[in-house]
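PROTOCOL LOG
Step 1. Enter all chains and additional molecules of the complex.
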Amino acid sequence: MLPVIQICLLLVAPFLFIGIINRVKALWAGRKGSPLLQPLYDFIRLLKKGEVISKTTSFVFQIAPTFNIAAVIFAFLLIPIPSFGSAFSFEGDFVLFAYVLGLSKFLTVLAALDTGSSFEGMGASREVTFSTIVEPAFFILIGTLAMLTGQTSFASIFHLLNSSAGYSVLIEILFTAALFIMILTEGSRVPVDDPNTHLELTMIHEVMVLDNSGPDFAFIFYSASMKMVLLSVLAANLLIPGNIQPVIATVLLIGIIMLSAVLIGLIESLIARARMSHVPQFIFLMTALSLIAFAVVVFYLRGRM
Amino acid sequence: MFDEFLLGCILFFAGGTSAIFVRGKAKGYLFLLFGIAAQFMILPSAVSVLLGGGNLEKILYFSDPIGSSAIRLDPLAVFFVIIISAGSLLASIYSMEYLKHYDEKKYSLSSFYFFFGLLISSMLLVVVVQNSILFLIVWELMSTSSFFLVIFESDKEEVRKAGVYYLIAMQIGASFLIAAFAWISSVTGSYDFNSFKNILSAQGSISIILFILFFIGFGTKAGFVPFHTWLPRAHPAAPTGVSAIMSGIMIKTGIYGILRIILLCGIPEIHLAYGVFIISLVTAITGILNGISQKDIKKLLAYSSIENIGIIGMGIGLGMLGLSYNLPLITWLGFLGALLHTLNHFTFKSILFYGAGIVYQKTGTRNLENLGGLIKYMPLTAAVFLIGAMAISGLPILSGFISEFAIYLGIAKSFSFDSASFNILMIVGFSGLALVGVMAVLGFTKLFGITFLGTSRSKFHHQPSEASPMLLFPMIICLTVIFFVGFFPAVIIHLISGAVNQFSQTNYLSELSSIISVYTSLAKAISIFVAILLFFFIVRYLLLRRKHVRIFKTWDCGYQTANSRVQYTGSSFSLPFLELVAAVVPQKTIVETEKEIFPAEAKLKTSQHDLLERIFIQPLLKYIRSFLNLFVWIQSGRMQQYILYGLIFLVLILIYVIGVM
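Step 2. Run joint prediction.
Step 3. Record the structure below.
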């Protein structure tokens, strides 16, 4: 019964995630804020609408959002849920995880170019540029975990990691911090991108999907927020010990997801978006953190598990 | 069966020769006929070896100095034979149609088909002969015939230049091979490959130096850095069918050569394995980095070939590391990844080159900055091209992912090995491969997005139209292979397991079955993904079924007079990334403005340079040139002097004969 509840909770988590971010920002600014589930209402409203499609576009523009949502739902199946494991796992599944998300990015970028708009071309160009920094760092992270545990699938890596006490808190901190930077980048949040700005020139993700509307835009919205939830679940896998009650694990999981939403909301309230030329430096922080984690694993932690 | 195979090899050459004697369109049809006949001769024997029917072998006797020479069809050779044979047939179908647009008076189709046939026959022989002299002969035939194909449009100066550059690069590579073969033969006294085993597998510096010689020789053909500089010159110069054959097939003979040498080496020296892996990673990164900065479609594709050779090389390096550290599973995954990627690169690179040729033929330009919106005019070409671009970026449900996955998995498996230097190398390879993958996404979204999407950035002379079925047919065949490998990886792995197993030192059944089981779950995962995808497509259809879908213009943010010139161009798309990597892809920007009070017309020119070419190749060429300039006086161009040479030669011979005899 609990797995079903977990899956349902995680499927609606994206709405709550965005809702919490917005509520935190509102409270910090002294406003009351919209209902927590407002993103869900927006989503349903979008699904009921028709669409406006540019006459410049081709089929690429119309298939991209569907690929997007299918990719995140599939990636969701690959990620283990604390104390239950993943829906299915095999050796090397993390490569498929990264590449399926890459597939959706490939098509989103093409859909942006498909509109022939200079704004969307700009967003596409930036999105894919920042990915070139994030992806290698993510692979260093996962590779380091594989090295630490000697396992080659998400489920077995986290299972072994959580059932042994032989690794340090330092690793946890480094990984969580690196993953958090990845959430900010992949989720297009401050300081990488500001989803709320009204100036297209400064946006990345939002500007790529300027022309989408109706159900397609709902799909894009859902997959963008689901991506952040997925990465939070990855972080939760690192932080939640393996030998606790499933119910407590579930509570912790929800807590960690909500906590990362609160953190994002606080960051967005406190600091401004970085200048575009400084964004790569911020993302390189993730590479640096992953490399430190790798060095720690290779030189200190080997053979202690 | 073996004689049929040899006959099939020669049939391509016969087809090319007989095409000389007929006219016009009949040339192409005749060549095709011979090509199809050759398939019937070659494929049965090849398939029988592939399915585990044992090697086919025959000893041919030649007069001295070649002596007896074995011609052997082992699984490795057969793997390449099938790619060469089938791929050449596709290329000749494409070329037949593509060349129709060339003026027959200006360009000699006879010589084209002659050298085309010669190239295919020599490539087929390269992978089966087991005698170093015979090997060098067919190797040189392959290089020379492809040179003549590159300079097909020899009235253009840049084509001639590229052709000569290519020829010289090939000869430099071949000289390394000659040196290596001569060295070995001087020790063993035999030209047979099998006799090389003793020297190459021995520990010590000789085997290392020999391996390096071979690697440079074969690596020049394959396009490893820093010997890659001929690819971005020769590929754009050659007619498209030839570019496809060169990039998809011919450079793989270099890969074949390296694999053959590794087979003879037995367990490679650990440093060599490190070296091959690192050079391959650098090759992959260099290739795609420079590819991203290109404006010419075919140059971009040529650089992407270098990238893919790098990925194949990473597989080879991983396999060698597995052999050196005695890790059978990693050996298996490494060589499996290398061979699978060889096959896959052939299919998607053929699609992309064929597509580029169609774009060039329909629009008259290969410059990305002038293209755009072609998907409206040629939707089918665009769709096939898109899938090719997705496959080459290694995206799942297509074949590119399957081969890169093998390398990823091999690297991931190696992490449990306890050696810090090995671990560091592997994590660099792991994230390096991810970097290459994401840069490929950048490069190919640029290539496809700028060429086919948006609106056209310049006026075309004629309205482009959909490609003819004969041009699309080879692309669609390749497409089927891409999907097949993507969805049924286990079948392909079974087929090439014989070739991979040649590298394995031990019993392979346990490795094979564990890899197959991983790939079976991967295939299952991919089919689940496809199911989810279909589900959401149905959901989208149902949601939009009764809704109003309005066709309107692109959101213009209030700028009413926007035209197609304000779109993002290829250069602007890749600019943010190129600024990040400006240290390794130096960019030169020239701004020409009139210094006037009021704004006047200004010009901006940007160009990128291949840094490794500048560091390694250009100084080398400079030194070689200044050294050779010392001997310029020998070639004075005066007839009297040449006659004098002859005279001196005769006198010397006379003195030798009288004095010594």
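Step 4. Note key features.
The mean pLDDT of chain B is 91.
The two ends of chain B are 52 Å apart (CA to CA).
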